[in-house]
Specification:
alpha/beta; three-stranded mixed β-sheet; 6 helices; globular; Purple Acid Phosphatase, chain A, domain 2; disordered C terminus
Length: 215
């Protein structure tokens, strides 16, 4: 049996020290939200206790589906890397970004550099997403919905090029005996508030996933 542990939205506390210049633009709204509301609900002690308990069960693989950061401040990506390292190496842990990891323009370079070991596909490619990682009987497919958005928005988007590559990947995988698991930060289905929903570059939905039975 293959055991996959799933962790999402750790929003690793506390916020690093930052200057007023660091908070220019959207970050100021997120900073105030953290100080007045969100920060009270995130405890590093609780997060560490949860991850410690998870590791005791020795899962075969761990998937972290985004929002390790809060404001996409540079030190947060190194903190995110240290957190991922506490779970295991890149062979055992997979990560995708969330909207808070791409809170402002240019943040993608920071998480791609800091977390590369954890979001690199098994086969080198000029495109990061979607990535494919085979672990035992499981095929992990990492999508990114993380894009910078205006203040008060937490929505995500999958571009047409990424969707095209994803469709090809999904067409090829049924020829293999594997269980397909898609890692995605924004829910691909169901009702969501307008400010938090996943938007598509064209009117399409994620392909249906019907994994073959395992032998």
């Amino acid at each position: 049996m293959f055991t996959l542990a799933h962790l999402s939205d750790p929003h690793i506390p506390p916020l690093p020290d930052c200057s007023p210049l660091d908070l220019f633009g959207k970050r100021i709204t997120g900073y105030l939200n953290w100080r007045l509301r969100r920060g009270a609900h995130h405890s590093r002690e609780v997060l560490d206790a949860l991850t410690k308990d998870m590791l005791v069960h020795e899962p075969d693989h761990i998937a972290v589906t985004g929002d390790l950061a809060n404001l996409s401040l540079a030190p947060e990506f190194e903190t995110g890397r240290e957190f991922l390292q506490s779970l295991g190496d890149g062979k055992r842990v997979s990560v995708i970004p969330g909207n808070h990891d791409a809170y402002v323009g240019g943040a993608d370079k920071n998480y791609l550099d800091a977390w590369r070991e954890y979001l690199a596909g098994d086969t080198p490619s000029e495109f990061i997403f979607p990535y494919l990682r085979r672990r035992g009987p499981v095929a992990l497919i990492g999508l990114s919905t993380a894009v910078p958005t205006p203040p008060f928005f937490a929505s995500g988007r999958i571009g047409s090029a990424q969707m095209d590559r994803f469709a090809v990947m999904m067409d090829e995988l049924p020829h293999e005996q594997c269980f397909r698991i898609v890692l995605i930060h924004h829910p691909p289905a169901g009702s969501r508030p307008r400010l938090k929903r996943r938007r598509s570059s064209r009117p399409e939905h994620l392909p249906a996933v019907h994994p073959p039975p395992l032998a």
